[in-house]
Amino acid sequence: MKITTNYSINTTKGYPLAQPAFQGGYKSFNVLNPISYYADKYLAKSAAKTRQQFIPSLPELKGMYKQVKLGKCKISPSGWDINKGDSDKYVLFMHGMAQNVSNYQNLYKKILELNHGIFALEYRGYGANSSAKLSEDKLRNDVEKAFNYLTKEKGILPQNIIAIGHSMGGALAANLAKNHPDIKSLILISPISNAMNISDKFALNKRLGQGIPPKIKKLTNKIPILKTLYSMRFDSIDTIKEVKVPTYIIQSYDDTVATIKGCRQIYKNAKRNGIMKWFKVLPTGGHKVDEAKINTVGQILSTVG
């Protein structure tokens, strides 16, 4: 094809105190990091909103999906298992931060047309699930539970699984691919390159995004260590360096959330890593998974089989 942490947040004097407990080489220490407060608050607010905005099933999918609970705990994640032809090929799909599984049904239709089953993961605290504490590590654990459901409970071979993630889900999908180099491929749709690379238009806007005060955002940009200690890293730029599976990226020039600059950094690292198969940049479409992006996913699935 042509290339066309878990932080616990305390407060002192009204400011958040982030206490990172990173694994894999990071040292534990405390730092006053006010931007973490706004990021964590936005994640919680976004999840709560998705529990209130659940879209009914499309007529074409009605009665086709199986609701699966990934654990016995009240706050366990869940998902939609859709497989109209009993296919042994599966897409494991991870949605974006302010979405739930019901928002991507047109994408599911396209995947089904190409004879793949779908497991659309619903993170803890999202959609039809109960409210729960959220962190990047917890969401990563939810993804692992979904992978275990497909491989251990359903018996799907890892080499028959394609990981697809949108926005925040792109960062989670990349982490899954890093941990499971035997999956078939990775498709990133408008992926978050790093939480600090989210556009100012989104990060500073109270209605659209995190509502970070401009002075705090400016301070964080000036102090590099605050970027390192950001509570939600979702760092696809670094993660992709350790991915070993064929990778495809779909992005729009006019994306006002995940910057095209950040996406190109993912692409460059993937190319250096020898895994880049297709980088498709669409002229329009913004951050949404619109018809053009869905059709592009269809083209990729038709090629990888």
Task: Describe the overall structure.
By secondary structure, the chain is α/β, with parallel strands linked by helices. It has two domains: 5-50 and 201-232, no CATH class; 66-194 and 233-304, 3-Layer(aba) Sandwich (Rossmann fold). Helices cover 34% and strands 19% of the residues. It has ten helices and eleven strands. The chain has helices spanning 34-50, 105-113, 136-153, 168-179, 200-203, 214-222, 224-228, 236-239, 260-272, 291-304; strands at residues 7-12, 15-20, 31-32, 65-69, 78-82, 90-94, 117-122, 161-166, 185-189, 247-252, 276-282. An eight-stranded mixed sheet has the order 4-5-7-6-8-9-10-11, with helices on both faces. A three-stranded antiparallel sheet has the order 1-2-3, with helices on one face. The chain is globular and about 55 Å long.
